[in-house]
Design brief:
heterodimer, A: alpha/beta, TIM Barrel, eight-stranded parallel β-sheet, two-stranded antiparallel ribbon, 10 strands, B: alpha/beta, 3-methyladenine DNA Glycosylase II, Chain A, domain 3, Rossmann fold, three-stranded mixed β-sheet, 17 helices
Chain lengths: 322, 448
Amino acid sequence: MPVAVEIPKEKWTGSIRKVTLGATAAEGGTRTKTVTVGGETTLPFLHFEGEIPHAPVIAFEVQDIHPADWSPVLLKAWGEVTKDPAAWAKKAEELGADVILLRLRGVDGNGNPTSAKQSAATVKAVLGATGLPLVVRGPGQAERDNELLVAAAEAAPGERLALGLCEDKNYRTIVAGALAHGHLVVASSPIDVNLAKQLNILISDMRLPLDRVLMDPTTGALGYGLEYTYSVMERLRLAALTGDGMTQQPMICFVGEESWRQKESRAAEGVPVQWGDIEKRAVTWEAVTATALLESGADIIVLRHPNNIGIIRDTINKLMAH
Amino acid sequence: MALSGLEIYKLLPKTNCKECGFPTCLAFAMKLAQKQVELDACPYVSQEAKEALSAASAPPIRLIKLGSGAREVQVGNETVMFRHEKTFFNKPALALRIKDTEAADAIAAKAAVVNAYSVERVGMNMTFGAFAIENASGDATSFANAVAAVRSKSDLPFVLMSDNADALKAALAKEGGHKPLLCAATAGNWEAMAAVAKAGGVSLVVRSSDGLDELADLTTKLGNAGVTDLVLDPGSRDLGTSLAQVTQLRRLALKKNFRPLGYPIITFPGEVAESEEGEIVAAAQYIAKYAGIVVVDHFDPAVAYPLLTLRLNIYTDPQKPISVDPGIYEFNHPTTNSPLLTTTNFSLTYFSVAGELDSSGLPAWLMVCDAEGMSVLTSWAAGKFDAETIAKSVKSTGIADKLSHKKITIPGLVAVLSGELEEELPGWEIQVGPREAVDIPAYLKVWK
């Protein structure tokens, strides 16, 4: 007697909000394409029980000032282009990125603070060089973020930039900037379901529609807290699918930044021989971090190494085919 | 319906004989309720109790053991879909595939390298778990020779891969009695495979070419033939479909208690990929999602290390903060003139800092504060790593008696604590160290 196996399917009641980055000329911006993420009604890539209308997308990180502190492996791979953010963004688009993450470092190559005016000019230059939507991040100190991100918001009205990081310390200023100039925010909380939820509530209370909010659960790199991020993302996604409206934002993961900060991606000498070749190890470190977070619900993966877009795109395509 | 620990306890002998390995019958009952042990471990359980318990007590995903001695590998016995629900228990074994068509000296060399590979992380040694030796030649003698060649270099368990039952029988004779896994029984050959597995007392992979119905049909037939130590290969060689299949298998076992598919899973990342990069990504997916054995076709330390690290991360028990003992740690024979650094007792933080201090070759003292097992920034944000905590540690450890100076270096990430710490530790000079552990050696070189 052949056995008939009944495939167990979960009946999810909630879904992820759709969020569109970028605006075309018709929509009040200047982008040649927009990117929509979200809309899932099931866990990552489980097509047999729900809809996944939008594939996860890939962003490349571009910085306003040449990142001399980056791993030599990265600097070698990008070459001269890192000295000009507009040329860098153009190159990232040519390599197939869906979105550009522009990071405003806050200090120039000599360690002097950059001005809001400079930041605004960089945002305009990058917008001029690429037709892709932008996520714009500040240096990561709340006060400087406020100064530079508000300048970025003003410089590009109606472009639907995603401004970040928007944290509990500074969300008022960033959300106000997004409201005033037609942008999105990246709501960032430190690896905690309740804090993520609370921040979404605060942002929503300021009347920014939730279809203009991306969620950054805080990325831990492979070997450096990945398991915490992985589980918080799974918990957020499960909460969203079971109907918790304040956890239903698409998630963005700063994979490149975290992965390339670690010793495994930087140190060629003075490490155990069991670590193997620096270049292959470092590139793999980023690819494995990205894969694990795609499996746990990432909608936007931000990478740093140009070669990893090929394999991560291929993986997403394979997981989306059904 | 699963029974509770107390319900199970009522059916046990209640003699607390300890022969099951647990101190009391109640403790054993609790483990049974959590499906972490088998009822067979109790030698005195009555027949009625056995029948009453058998349905409820067997782990929903059978525990399969490969190999022997220190290199035994256990897979299966998982109890949750998501690691945050409890934890994942038995780390998947990484197995390197070796084909019997490769040159004999190349086989031996590869086997020796992988056998010896061990990489340390947070105090744990991570290694490959097995070799998968494939009868790619189709020739039984070549297969047996390859098996003998690998065995001469390694005592790791083997997955013996052939669709020829006689070739597997011959290979078993050369394998050395380390409980290999035979691979694979299919709809076409399961009877012959069952006979070899049964005669050898070894476990067997069941492979479906037509989805889960066929798989369940095969495991049922094999069970009726007396072969119950099984590992599943649901068959798909497509990344997306196989993710769906392994998820369905796990759900069927855990949520439906569906016995015919309650076994660990073997995966072949190289067979779903067109490139080595593709294999790496597929292996990462299978480590995160439900594999018991992951057979890879390439070995490179630069890839093995990240994959083994992912396995460590995913299988870390989320219920326990991983911490080290607070106190004073010495590096490179410090003297009274050596610098004193401080950090928290989160194990990852400790091992990052300790690794750098150690490899710098420079003497130093490290004071590890009790920050409830949290990292520097997390514990600072939670108020568990502040000036008061650091000052308290300085006093309780008596570190001042070991130093001729009164200088303490705090992590750069908490530079903001300097002022308060000066007040808490009068007479001490508070120094601010680097933000990242990787910059510690450079800091020590210029430390005054």
